[in-house]
Amino acid sequence: MAKQPNPAPQPLSFPPSHFAKLAPRSYLHAHLSSSNGRRPSGRLAHESRKPQINTGSLTHCHGSAVVRVGDNAIVCGIRAEILNASDIVDCKPATKLEELEERYGSGMGAQMGFREGEIRRQSRAEDAEEMAQLNLLVPNVELSTGCSPSYLSGMPPSTEAQSLSHRVLTLLHTSQLLSMDDLRIWYHPASTFTSIVPQPPSEAPTAEEPTSMSLDVPNDIIPTEEEDAQRPEIKAYYTLHITLLVLSLSGPPFSTIWTALLSALRNTRLPKAWWDADRQSVICSPFSSDARPLRLNGLPIAMSCGVFNTEKDGTGLVSQVAEGGGKDEKKWILCDTDGFEEGCCEEELTVVVRERQGAHGQGMEVVRIEKCGGGVVGRKEMREAVTLAEERWKVLKGAIEGSA
Q1: Whole-angstrom Cα distance, residue 23 to residue 244?
Q2: Half-sphere exposure of residue 297: CA atoms within 13 angstroms, side-chain side
Q3: Phi–psi pair at 276, nearest 5 degrees
Q4: Which end of the chain, N or C, is less surrounded by CB atoms within 10 Å?
Q5: pTM
């Protein structure tokens, strides 16, 4: 009987999922240096994932949003609580109208309206400083069990969760996003206040009459000490408790967390509140029609990206070029990295931009830039990241405004 020939040996091969686990950097480099230059997820280097935003999902919050970008899913809930001015010990805020005028200028009194006794100040930097002193913004990021294999149940808050909470609080203050006018609760007796503040003219103003109201006290109306004690006064503040729950984590979550926070702030409605002198407490209106939205200072959008560098890899990938022609680049800026790409990138860059407002002209402005790890990013890469952030701003702005 003739002996059967031995079968030819089969070449040893691995499926792509095994190759990605054995040599993740080589796997990512092979995709980026190919002819189409696409990542393992199928996206281009500068292509971000499409956001999905839903607002008003939580019933018992004053504002809420659910945001999903790829495998990152964040739930944000905002609840306002009242802080009495008399309970503030460490920092005594200015509560009298005269104290605010002395600090910010006498013209502030003329800008006070009758409805809520709000003062519209020009300097949001002073607002951010006062918010920080009074701790009126309290963000808390929680990495829930099951969001990632790295986070187990029953563990204390991780270092990453605390770091994300601090970054959110810092950006809230540096972006000057909120106004103190929305958080103050005023008290002013109607009898004294209306006798001093002149009513708007019923007819059209003449050249001798000013077009704006003034708080200049006439010579024949000089308030006594008793009347002066009943001038408009800040009795309480709204404190915003912001809870950000990470349901699913895949890649740097900060940009998704910030998007969820912006969406929830735009959805927030604060109840109408006033000081009741008889009860010596703050009373809130139960009617939703009296609630008012927050007035945000623009729409600062955050974009996170990773830098994949092969210059000092030590694996010989620098000179490798995929068959069929590819891009012999040594570093790539990857927008909106996922969990796999995050482990291959040595540097992470976060750029926050928003539309320029006021007398500074049209265009975009950089609010904040954060970078951690490595030293590859230079001026060229920084400009490229800012340009990509401006393009991402247009996409997220449309998604946020469309969800309202």
Answers
A1: 34
A2: 24
A3: -95, 115
A4: N
A5: 0.79
